[in-house]
């Protein structure tokens, strides 16, 4: 199905405005939307095959009755613990995170930051100068990630204001833009020359901008989406892709392998495969870790080295934990990046639990170090 060619983004926030939904679907989905907001746009909705009840794009964006299952919490990675001021997080030593927007091109049903759309208190950056002051004072910060929401929902002028200020901080070498806009509305990129010129201006030989895309299925890689990514790459910006493993969307080795291959063909590096975070409403989208490991490895077996570079990780409160192997009785993990630098790279042996969906569901058997911190290996007491 070809996407609509649109000159302007039109948001859709009422399920009654979606012609493809049956009356019974509309009744069920409205109950979900009363608890977790719905938002889409004309372009992304045009990718759905309404004759296929299992269409993956539909599952990404249309409310699902299973979201009402009580499970998880609104801040599953305890981002509040690392918040310096509203919209500024400093969890990892060399990386600061700026939530620069509370808007997106659409609300993914499995979103792990649902609180941004639910909480009346602003959780995004309000005081840019205060954030710059903090980053300037912390010379260990070499990377700054702009996220939200989606930074590309900001006007280009506003985005440039933030990026230009970061470029004035000598020790900030990498600026990352975490965005799903190449997926949700690629015309935001293809029709905005000023945005592309801005990228070219602020990415340099020694100080790169990286765009971290979030394609979750190959059906999202439309011709215009690929064109948008190609235009970004022509500015000198590097592109990588992060994808959560999602039930009913990409939890099939063939589907995941095709995504990895298609991304690599476009020059977009597969970067992370995320275990779906235990955010409220996410149970129906979550694949147990050990099943997920098997899916990821079978997918990687089908692609070339350039397409299999993604690491299977979970963004736990204590750090990014990589799932690196399993046997019938044990699961093996290590800290790929830890909130406490002393824990980085540490290796853990855990007792197999086929139902486990998060690190906290496991029982530790052994680790390569004594626990000297006041928290358990798998989280605070």
What does this structure look like?
With 381 residues, this protein is an alpha/beta fold. The strands form two sheets. A 13-stranded mixed β-sheet has the order 3-4-5-6-7-8-9-10-11-12-13-14-15. Strands 1-2 form a two-stranded antiparallel ribbon. The chain is built from twelve helices and 15 strands. Helix 6 runs parallel beside helix 9 (193-202) and helix 11 (253-265) packs across helix 12 (289-300). Strand 10 (269-275), helix 12 (289-300) and strand 11 (311-316) form a beta-alpha-beta unit. The chain has a domain at 11-68.
Helix content: 25-40%
Strand order of the largest sheet: 3-4-5-6-7-8-9-10-11-12-13-14-15
H/E topology pattern: EHEHHEEEHHEHEHHHEHEHEHEEEEE
- The radius of gyration is 20 Å
> Which consecutive residue ranges, at least 5 long each, have pLDDT under 50?
369-381
How many E strands?
Answer: 15
Query: Approximately how much beta-strand content do the residues carry?
Result: 15-25%
Sheet having the most strands = 13 strands, mixed
The DSSP helix count reads 12
Mean of pLDDT: 93
Shape by Cα distribution: globular
The secondary structure category is: alpha/beta
Distance between the termini: 50 Å
